[in-house]
Design brief:
The protein is mostly helical. It has helices at about 1-5, 20-40, 75-105, 115-155, 165-170, and strands at about 60-65, 70-75, 175. It has five helices and three strands. Strands 1-2-3 form a three-stranded antiparallel beta sheet. Helix 3 (about 75-105) runs antiparallel to helix 4 (about 115-155).
Length: about 180
C-alpha cells in the first residue's frame, strides 16, 4: 500500500525492459525446474546434436550425483567455450539487472514493500551471478592448468615432470545453480 501511495499518479513502467527481464527469468526458472525433474526421475537425456558438416561431433554429457547434489559436465572444447561465453554473458545480464533493481529500490520509501521486494530481487540476482562467475572461473582455472601442463611437457626433459598424474586429478564438479 505504501508503495502505491508513494508512486502517486506515475503509473508508467518500473524501468526500461524490467517486465521483459522478469519474464525471461521466470522462463529460465521453469526450464531449470523441468530439467531438475528429469534428472531426479532418471529420464533419458536428450540425444546429442550433430555438429555442422565437417566438424567433429558435439560432446555434451552430464552426470548428476544425487548424493552430493553435484552435476559433472563433459563437453568438447568448442562446446565448452560456447557454454562459458553464454554463462559469462548471462552473469553480466544478472549483474546489470541487480544494479537496475537496486538503484530503483533506493528511490522507494524506507521499509516499504516495494523497497523490500527490490532488495530481495537484488539479493537473488547477486547469488545467481556469483554462481555463474564461479563456473566461469573454474573453467578458466582448468584451461590455465592444462596450458601450464602442456608448457611443462615441452620445456622439461622426459621423466622430470613429477606428480603429473596427481595434478590432473583436480576435477571440478559444478553445483546445480539457482
Amino acid at each position: 500500500m505504501q508503495y502505491c501511495v508513494a508512486r502517486g499518479t506515475e503509473l508508467g513502467p518500473i524501468g526500461e525492459n524490467f517486465g521483459a527481464a522478469c519474464d525471461q527469468i521466470d522462463r529460465a526458472d521453469v526450464m531449470l525446474a523441468a530439467r531438475h525433474q528429469q534428472a531426479r526421475h532418471g529420464r533419458a537425456q536428450p540425444r546429442q546434436g550433430r555438429a555442422e558438416t565437417g566438424e567433429p561431433q558435439i560432446t555434451a554429457l552430464t552426470h548428476p550425483d544425487p548424493e552430493t547434489q553435484t552435476v559433472t559436465f563433459i563437453l568438447d572444447a568448442v562446446t565448452a567455450n560456447a557454454v562459458i561465453f553464454a554463462v559469462a554473458a548471462h552473469a553480466d545480464e544478472r549483474e546489470a539487472h541487480f544494479r537496475e533493481v537496486e538503484q530503483f529500490g533506493q528511490s522507494l520509501p524506507e521499509g516499504s514493500y516495494g523497497r523490500r521486494n527490490r532488495q530481495a530481487i537484488a539479493a537473488r540476482e547477486t547469488r545467481v551471478a556469483t554462481r555463474l562467475r564461479a563456473v566461469a572461473q573454474a573453467y578458466r582455472m582448468a584451461i590455465e592448468h592444462k596450458a601450464a601442463q602442456a608448457m611443462a611437457r615441452t620445456s622439461a626433459p622426459p621423466g622430470q615432470i613429477r606428480g603429473e598424474k596427481e595434478a590432473v586429478t583436480g576435477q571440478h564438479d559444478l553445483e546445480a545453480g539457482e
